[in-house]
Amino acid sequence: MYRGSIFSNMPVRWYALLCCISLLCAVKSTHAQDTAIIRSRNFGIQNEIYFNDSLWYFHAGELHKTQQSIANTTGWEPLHYTAFGKENAPRGWQGVGWFGSWIRADTDLVNKKLAIRINHDGASEIFLDGKPIGGYGKVGNSAKEMVAMSARRELIPIWFPDTRPHLITIHYSNFFEVYANFYGFQTWIADYNQLAPKIQIANQRFNFILMCAAAQLILGLLHLLLFLFYPRQKLNLYYALFVVLVGINEIGIYQFYRTNSPMVQYVAQWLIDEGKVIMMWAAVMLLYKLDYNRIPRWRVIILSTISSLYFGAYIYKFFNHIEAWTDYFALVFLICMMDGFWSVFRLIKKRQKGVWLIGAGVVTVILLFYFAWEDIFHWWPYHLNSLRLLVMAVGELILPLCLSLYLAVDFAKTNQNLTAKLAEVEKLSALALAQETEKTELIAGEARRLEEIVEQRTSELREQADKLREMDMVKSRFFTNITHEFKTPLTLIINPAKELIANTADEEIHRNTRLILNNASRLLQLINQLLDLSRLENGLMEVSRIPLDFVALIRLHILSYESLIKQKGISLHFTSHWDKLWMLGDRDKLDAIVINLLSNALKFTDEGKVEITLQKDNELQGDAFSFTVRDTGRGIPSAKIPYVFDRFYQADPSDTRSAEGTGIGLAITKEMVELMGGQIRIESKEGEFTEVNINMPYQAAGAVLEPILELLPAGVTATMVDNKHQTDTDETKPLVLLIEDHQELRNFILQSLTGKYRVLTAADGNEGITLALEHIPTLIITDLMMPKVDGYEVSSTLKKDVKTSHIPLIILTAKADMDSKIQGIETGADAYLAKPFEKRELFALMENLISVRNQLREHYSRQDLWFTDALSMPSIERDFITRVRHAVESHLNEEGYSADQLARDIGLSRTQLHRKLKDLINQSPGELIRIIRLQYAHDLLQRRVATIAEVAYMVGFSSPASFSASFSRHFGFAPKTVSAI
């Protein structure tokens, strides 16, 4: 402290007071320099002052919300523009901060009601001289804490009590860039009494826009219902689409100006852009539909392509927050609408009634778009924006109203036409009624005549029915009598056969006798079924009941099939609820039922198992059993299951079925079961299983001592072992392939052929084809009806294969009709022999075919004949010989070219090639190679192409000496004799 200072004796409190006064003066002086003065003349036509530039201070981060801290801008950064974006944000801006501006009112505005209006996409709290006066949304320090709100059409009233500077402070946060490059805010100071009524009027206009949108939607819904009621008038559909789109677009405009959500406002603006594109498309399509019954495809493609491009561009603009761009949509809109207007103009030229209304509506829409929507002449200042939008919304109703009037006129015209048509129809109906009355009288007379004819014909049919009934009875009696007559010779066959079996020791006689007995027993079973069927038809079948053990009866029949089960390699399981089931039953009928079900199950099961179940049936009252036979065979197609109980029906009638049958077994079984009071059902799935179930009541009986009854064989008993290998190894005997699925017949023919022929056997067509291609037999005998592949396909396959095409083939079958024979010959078969056949006839046919084959072989085996006379061969044999010759010619000079190499070149094994060539030309592959070489050598020598030694090497001989020796042996003269000629 200086001694001479004027403050040396001043008290400390006065000194402090003097310092505060000096500081306040300095601050006040600073504020006075940056204070904005508002005057009445500055409000202008908008009744507000734009208050954004060069008057603000910024403080980043948070402040204590005390009146002293937020009523002072000391140390704050100056800010020149509050509507900043990401690029020009104030220093330190992290999404939240404080903004302040000093304002001083002119004398004429003191104590006058003013207002603050703010536009932002964030949240704000507004203070005047440190006191809160309002705000929008919820200010937060992060995006999660902040609640954004846009209130650009809201006013916050304020008063300035004097002309001193006053501080407006805004606590503001915004973490979203809803609109491009706009994080900040915009503020206005307005004359409340002037601006508030204008905002209220503008809001009312926006409400009217919403009412116009509702009217558009109602019109669209009405015409959509008209389209649903009358779909042929598609104009209503296009109309409804256009009007609904206009209504939706107006709702978007309303939301854009009235919503307080920034994001909703942004989406509404995007919808408005997309809406104008879709409205253009719908309007032009509607105008096209007026002129064209079927809109030209190229017009639809061009219009849809343009609309899609703009639609995608606005989507791109939306997601990339592009603020503004030049899209030339106004020009494109004019071109498209004028093209649509051309369709209307064409209708006007055709003098179509009422079309001028639509033309007027289209012109109105175009004018509204350019003078209201786009405002290309800037006729509408900002404060008339709501009026501009209202005029546009009301004007957009003109085209729908014009369209509605046109459709009403068109409907009236259609109604008039319909009325005229209706009158014409009534006139024609009256004429038709008179004609119909006349026709009715004619028809009545004709009906009376027809009744007389029908009565006469009915009498004739009744007489014919009586005659047919009588003939049917005669047929049934004849059928029954002749069937009974069959039993006598069968008895005389079966019983002596049994005596022979019992009294002979000769194995061959025993085997043949067993074959006779088995097939006679099968024939007797078929005869019994036919007799049962005849009795069932005539209602003469009776049920006789005797005590019997049903379990023992089932086991007895299972034993009769034991050999067949072993032969097929399947398993059979029998499960019974009872050890013995004594009841009163008809043994013959129960035998027939069990035999039919067991034989069917075993017949159609090639692998897997057969399960037989006998158990108590709890569904029927009293004593009843359930008898089930289930197999894992091929099953029955679902479409054929309803018919399996019909008489003479076979689920597989083809030539490739694997089992024989007449189609009456299940029919008789069903009728017998129902005759005894039972029910039968069948369930099957193709390729998986078949299950037959019988539910039948029974009357219990006491056990009695039964005699052991011998059952006739129910199925085929294997009497011979099937042999698929050759029965003889003598290569001089012809090799015969026998393809037959019936084992006993196959064994019988095998036994007959053995000794004179070597025999291969196959049980089906697939196996036969494989054996034929592998062994190349001399002759093939095939059955026609076989499982998997029938005889026709065997013949066709082997005759088309180069390995086996030359082999004679005999089809042996029970189908002896002319069509079947012709079909067999057409597949390439050499002979067709019907069953039953005479063994001598079969042998004679075989000898004849083999003899003819040998003659042909001798013919083609003569020296060089097959070179010069190959055209007389069948085409497939000629092609084969040509392939062999070309293969040898291509290796003519190769000394080591052998039969193995030739077989590989032809695509056969050496054995197959050897048998093919021996059967065809009676030459081995080695002999054939040698002959071809010598023939070419003879030609070369004859033409004097080279010397003898050179020719020898040219045709693949190792030395001239061996060549000369082979040449002399083959031709009978030396090579030099040829070259000397």
UniProtKB/TrEMBL annotation:
Q: What class of enzyme is it?
A: transferase
- Fetch the Pfam families from UniProt: HATPase_c (PF02518), HisKA (PF00512), HTH_18 (PF12833), Response_reg (PF00072)
Q: Which UniProt keywords are listed?
A: DNA-binding, Kinase, Membrane, Phosphoprotein, Signal, Transcription, Transcription regulation, Transferase, Transmembrane, Transmembrane helix
Q: Does the keyword Disulfide bond apply?
A: no
Q: What is the lineage of its organism?
A: Bacteria, Pseudomonadati, Bacteroidota, Sphingobacteriia, Sphingobacteriales
Q: What is this protein called?
A: histidine kinase
Which ranges does the record mark as transmembrane? Answer: 208-230, 237-257, 269-288, 300-316, 328-348, 355-373, 389-409
Q: Quick check: keyword DNA-binding in the entry?
A: yes
> Which positions bear 4-aspartylphosphate?
783
SUPFAM superfamilies from the UniProt entry = ATPase domain of HSP90 chaperone/DNA topoisomerase II/histidine kinase, CheY-like, Homeodomain-like, Homodimeric domain of signal transducing histidine kinase
Q: Please state every residue range assigned to the domain named Histidine kinase.
A: 481-700
Matching Gene3D superfamilies? 1.10.287.130, 3.40.50.2300, Histidine kinase-like ATPase, C-terminal domain (3.30.565.10), Homeodomain-like (1.10.10.60)
